[in-house]
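Continuing the series of single-chain predictions for the mutant panel. This is the parent chain; the variants come on the following pages.
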Amino acid sequence: MNNLRRLVLGAFLAVLGFFLVTEHRAHLFGVLPYLFLFACPLFHLLLHRRHGGHGIDSPQGRKEPDSQANAGGHSHG
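Parent structure:
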């Protein structure tokens, strides 16, 4: 019985979505540029959480190349 309810609900939502898109196409496409503008800062906030944000470099995790070690390894002096 539960599967039948899901099937009927899915069919109803599909028909509802179809008529919503076909009857209100001008309204939906008129809002589309604003949705893209809203998505930019939203994605910026969501995706920058993964790598720690802007300008956060820990000196312990990163090794800078030593200038003397890259100079050939020999000192003639």
